[in-house]
Design goal:
The chain is α+β, with helices and mostly antiparallel strands. It has two helices and eleven strands. The longest helix is centred in the N-terminal third of the chain and has 34 residues.
Length: about 180
């Protein structure tokens, strides 16, 4: 129900003239339409009020994910590091599994996630150290992540999961040759 400035209710068939100064157009609205607009505006303001909560949840999810940039290449290893997190890809040892993932208190040894891409990176190197990186997050089942790379004229990425047992699974994969 809409009321006049004096507090008297308007009938639903009352016509009101509203002037929009922005564009200089006058339109006529019924009290019923104004009531609907008021409800829509209220819903919009409730949505706006909830944005800080949605943003806080998004920020929380991002804190669970860590980016690891290539830190070191030795004769046998590529090491990707961030604070308290590392991925070591071993190309020389034939004993055990070639991938070691350390996140805080968790350590997982894994078979190759994408051996072809890892060997290509080991042989050719990244275009720059920040153009080859892992992005990892943990859950109770293991590690979930993404590897993004730019090696010479090839760029791509793949997403993956590595279970606590060390069994890797590539979820998505894409690559393309970039123009000179």
């Amino acid at each position: 129900m809409i009321a006049t400035p004096c507090g008297e209710p308007l009938a639903s068939d009352t016509q009101l003239s509203v002037y929009f100064a922005y564009r200089g157009h006058a339109i006529t609205l019924s009290a019923q339409n104004i009531s609907r607009l008021t409800m829509r505006c209220s819903a919009f303001f409730v949505f706006l009020a909830s944005l800080p909560i949605i943003s806080a949840c998004s920020a929380f999810d991002q804190r669970l994910s860590t980016q690891l940039f290539m830190n070191l290449k030795s004769e046998c290893e590529l090491i990707f590091k961030s604070q308290n997190v590392s991925v070591v890809e071993n190309f020389c040892s034939t004993e055990g599994k070639p991938i070691l993932i350390r996140m805080n208190d968790q350590e997982i040894r894994s078979d190759w996630i994408d051996e072809r891409t890892s060997r290509f990176l080991f042989q050719e190197g990244c275009a720059s150290s920040d153009e080859c990186f892992y992005e990892l997050s943990t859950n109770e089942a293991g590690v979930r992540g993404r590897f993004s790379y730019r090696i010479n004229m090839t760029e791509g990425e793949y997403s993956f999961e590595v279970g606590a047992s060390g069994q890797p699974k590539v979820l998505t994969e894409k690559s393309k040759d970039s123009a000179s």
